[in-house]
Design a protein that fits this description.
Elements lengths: L2 H8 L14 E13 L4 E3 L4 E2 L3 E17 L7 E4 L2 E2 L5 H11 L9 E7 L9 H16 L6 H11 L11 E4 L12 E3 L7 E6 L10 H11 L6 H18 L2 H20 L10 H15 L5 E3 L6 E6 L3 H7 L4 E3 L9 E5 L5 E6 H7 L3 E12 L2 E9 L10 E2 L2 E3 L7 H13 L6 E12 L4 E13 L13 E8 H10 L8 H10 L2
Parallel strand pairs: 5-7, 16-21
Antiparallel strand pairs: 1-4, 2-3, 4-7, 4-8, 5-6, 8-9, 10-12, 10-13, 11-12, 14-15, 16-17, 16-19, 17-18, 17-22, 20-21
Helix pairs in contact: 3-4, 6-7
This protein binds (3R)-3-hydroxy-3-methyl-5-(phosphonooxy)pentanoic acid.
């Protein structure tokens, strides 16, 4: 059975209308995921059907944002990753093109695929999983298929096996299935969460791995004498992980995940020729983890097909683990979940519904938002705090803006949301005062998105001693600027600022 046959089956009701695009472009987001019980070995190379089930945790707001559209008068697809066009002859482009060939309505239809990744660079966390999951979600919107997540999971698997687990947040299980067409081989979320869970990524190698997971899996299945034991190991580990999650037994979760990963790497060492992804830094870090455990700190590791390690621990050990590994980047998979829901309002700020973040911005629907302006008196002047948005933001990346802004979640008070975001983005908690609301609509240059917001403006007066701890994922720099300098620069260099900043500043000044 070929990929094309599976796709034909899933899209059978769309024959002939597959190319009827209703949107000029479609956007989607998917999180990266880390397997706690690994997928290692395929029973069908073409369809990425695994030998065993597996179980992962999605990585909160670390993942891939993808936009797909047609290239007007194209001679081929264009792929842009984190703002850089990918060479057409690269392995990345070849694999993506082959996958998109499965969906192209005709040979002259070419795609522009733009992706932004917030997966820590080269952290050994498969960005292909979130990449193919986001791509399938974007295609579903682009062609208006309205497929169920189960079917989308099957489609994502055809792009990259572990991508089928990246369609959900939290814990996700990928079922092995029995059928040869793989229609019963898809992922589904577990309903239980674990807010205190933390994942830390340790990066030892920025180099692309010499042997891909695809090749390494195939070689393991073909040559390791121990491979027949792997399905039994997985069966036991899956049971233990389910039990650990339902009883919130962290030691059981961590020890099972660590053992499962070591067993997977042991299989690789037993292949002909052997495959060893670890380097001396990997081994030293494993020993450090074991020393910490010996000293009573509950920290465990897991390793994918690369030299880097991911550490597992709970919130109460965060400081101690961070000081043992200063370079550790910590992810809070349940706390940092991307909330996609915004509050839709009418022109009197009355709530009229909720909407998913991206379509709301694509269609320019009016929604509730807030802007925070922190200010201080310094050397006889009033200064305001500006932040430079991270390069990973889905719009207005790299631009300078007011101290913090965002959207309240459905059911969340707007002041509480402003305090929450101020803490998440700038690392400070302080009293804020709402000074009013204003309504604006603006196109966000270069993104095809629209801001149409009922913006609640909050101000907070700061002391000159205020210590800011900006979150690197959100904010790349900050600066205190006098009002006069800012107003002059907004005139001269408006392209360096967000479209909403002039209005927020005008509002702020009217309260002074
Ligand atoms: O989906 P792939 O081909 O990137 O393989 C993933 C393999 C591991 O990351 C090592 C294990 C897993 O289950 O994610």
């Amino acid at each position: 059975m070929q990929k094309q046959d599976v796709i034909k089956e899933i899209l059978k009701q769309f024959t002939g209308v597959k190319s009827s695009v209703t949107l000029p472009a479609a956007y989607a987001w998917a999180p990266a995921n880390l397997a706690l019980c690994k997928y290692w070995g395929k029973r069908d190379e073409e369809l990425n059907l695994p030998m065993t089930s597996s179980l992962s945790i999605s990585l909160g707001n670390r993942g891939t944002f993808t936009r797909i559209s047609y290239v007007a008068a194209g001679v081929g697809d264009i792929y842009v990753v984190n703002g850089k066009e990918v060479a057409a002859g690269s392995e990345f482009a070849k694999r993506l093109r082959a996958f998109l060939d499965l969906f192209r309505p005709n040979k002259q239809a070419f795609y522009l695929v733009e992706t932004e990744s917030t997966v820590p660079i080269a952290a050994g966390l498969a960005s292909s999983a979130s990449g193919y999951a986001a791509l399938v979600l974007a295609l579903n919107k682009f062609y208006n298929w309205n497929l169920a997540k189960k079917e989308l999971s099957v489609l994502a698997r055809l792009g990259s096996g572990s991508a089928c687990r990246s369609l959900w947040s939290g814990f996700v299980e990928w079922y092995r299935g029995e059928r040869s067409d793989g229609m019963d081989c898809y992922a589904a979320p577990l309903t239980l969460g674990w807010p205190e869970l933390r994942i830390g990524t340790l990066i030892f190698s920025h180099q692309a791995k010499k042997i891909s997971s695809r090749q390494a899996m195939a070689q393991t299945v073909a040559t390791s004498k121990f491979y027949p034991m792997w399905p039994c190991q997985v069966e036991v580990d899956l049971q233990k992980i389910h039990q650990a999650i339902s009883t919130q037994d962290f030691v059981l979760l961590g020890s099972t995940a660590e053992h499962n990963s070591l067993a997977m790497h042991a299989l690789m060492q037993s292949t002909l020729p052997p495959i060893i992804y670890s380097n001396s830094d990997t081994i030293a870090a494993m020993q450090r983890v074991w020393e910490l455990r010996h000293a009573g700190i509950e920290v465990f590791f897991t390793q994918d097909a690369g030299a880097n390690l991911q550490l597992l621990f709970l919130a109460n050990e965060e400081h101690i683990v961070q000081s043992a590994f200063p370079e550790l980047e910590i992810i809070r998979p349940f706390f940092d979940m991307r909330s996609e829901q915004l509050i839709l309002v009418d022109e009197t700020d009355r709530e009229i519904g909720v909407g998913e973040k991206l379509p709301v911005h694509v269609n320019g629907q009016l929604h509730r938002a807030f802007s925070v302006v922190l200010w201080r008196r310094h050397n006889g002047n009033i200064e305001v705090l500006l932040q430079q948005r991270s390069k990973h933001k889905y719009h207005s990346a790299n631009l300078w803006s007011n101290s913090c802004c965002g959207h309240p979640r459905p059911g969340e008070d707007v002041l509480a949301a402003a305090m929450r975001r101020l803490h998440e983005e700038m690392g400070v908690t302080m009293p804020l005062r709402e000074v009013g609301t204003f309504l604006y609509r603006a196109e966000l240059p270069g993104s095809g998105l629209y801001e149409h917001e009922m913006d609640h403006v909050f101000v907070g007066e700061c002391s000159t001693q205020l210590a800011l701890k900006p979150n690197r994922d959100e904010v790349q720099a900050f600066s205190w600027m006098t009002i006069d300098r800012l107003l002059a620069d907004l005139n001269e260099n408006s392209q360096q600022y967000t479209v909403w900043l002039p209005q927020v500043m005008a509002f702020f000044l009217s309260t002074k």
